[in-house]
Write a structure and sequence with these properties.
CATH superfamily: P-loop containing nucleotide triphosphate hydrolases
CATH class: Alpha Beta
Radius of gyration: 16 Å
CATH architecture: 3-Layer(aba) Sandwich
Number of domains: 1
CATH topology: Rossmann fold
Helix content: 25-40%
Strand order of the largest sheet: 2-3-4-1-5
Strand content: 5-15%
Oligomer: single chain
Amino acid sequence: MPRICAADLLPLPPGLIAITGDEGSGKTTLLRGLGSDSLWLDLSLPGRDDQTPQQVWAALRQPCSRWDEALHEDLMTALGLQPHRGKKLFMLSTGSRRKVALVGLLASGVTVTCLDQPFAALDASSAGVIREFLADAADHPWRTWVVADYVADERLPWRREVKLTWPMGQ
C-alpha cells in the first residue's frame, strides 16, 4: 500500500472524515500536515498548565474570525465546564483538559477542524455530547472535521474513511 500524506486527502469534502490506524501509524502527523486552512490542537494542552479555560479559549478565538460564541457556551454547559472556567488547567483532570480543547476546536468556525482521538479520557456523557455534535455537523455545507482514532466510530456518518497502516503507510 502506498504511503498516504496530507496532500492525498485534498480536497477535503465537508462533513466527517475518519483517519484510522494503530499507534505509530501517522494519524497525528497527517492531521498536522493538512495545511493553513485547518486547526489542530494537542488536546492535552501541554505547556498551558498555568492558563485557565477562559484564557485558552481567548487565545483560540483570536485568529478564528468565525468563532461561534453561542456554540461555545452550549458546549461549555453540556460538557460541565462552567464551574472550571476560572481554574488553572493543572487543577483539572485529563478529561476536563481535553474537553476545554474540544470546546475551542468545535467553536472555532475554521474550515477544517482536526480532532486527534477526541473521545479519549472522556466520561460516557461527554463522549456522547461530542458524538452528537459530530453527527449533527456531518451535513455542514462547508466545514470539515477530520477525526483521527484507532477505529472509526460506527455511530457516525463518515463521508470518507482513510485507514493508515504501520509503519507510516507501509
